Amino acid sequence: MGDSTSTPSSAGSPAPVLGKRQQCQNIIQKNIKKNSKVKFLIENLEKSGCRIGNNFIRAVNCDRPAAGGFARGYGIEICSNYLHMEDEVVQAMIHELIHAYDDCRVANLRWSNSNHQACSEIRANHLSGDCHYLREILRGHLQLDDLRLKGHEPVCVKRRSVQSVAAHHSPAKAKIAVETVWDTCYNDTTPFDRVP
């Protein structure tokens, strides 16, 4: 996707469990109806004036290792061939819905602007739970006895945000962009009252 704002999340090889798009699409549809965070984000997208159709979130087979992506005017794609569990599908949905919400609420958002993209990546990584310590342990970035366990979340959010922005800009520019907007964007929990 041209305006894709996500980076790889889990393993780098296609998933045998969710290799079929239809199975992933069924998980998407189930969680649109039943997952409280997904429902909350969709409701807030619509309250903000952005109507989403039945195919706004779609399961696809992706060419590169990724969890999914969002593109303005096109919607959200979830990479069914790179996600291994339902929880990963839901996590990708929440992450991409935050990007969609940012795109809806910020009138002058330009995804090509490294600061704009960095802000949305910070928010998506922070508010979606992408950096929960258990996810970081599964990714190999933390161990249960790791002394960094307590303060890992902001470190993870920065790391993942820089990686995402660096997919579209130089690594140096990505790091500067994340640092520039960090305080404002990390503390912006909209549409949630607090970090979920």
UniProtKB/TrEMBL annotation:
Single GO molecular function: metalloendopeptidase activity
Ligase listed as a keyword: no
Pfam family, one: Peptidase_M76
Keyword annotations: Hydrolase, Metal-binding, Metalloprotease, Protease
EC number: 3.4.24.-
Example GO biological process: mitochondrial protein processing
Source taxon at top rank: Eukaryota
GO cellular component term of the entry, any: mitochondrion
Family matches, as PANTHER family: MITOCHONDRIAL INNER MEMBRANE PROTEASE, MITOCHONDRIAL INNER MEMBRANE PROTEASE ATP23 HOMOLOG
Family of this protein: Belongs to the peptidase M76 family.
Protein name: Mitochondrial inner membrane protease ATP23
Organism the protein comes from: Salvia splendens (Scarlet sage)
Organism lineage: Eukaryota, Viridiplantae, Streptophyta, Embryophyta, Tracheophyta
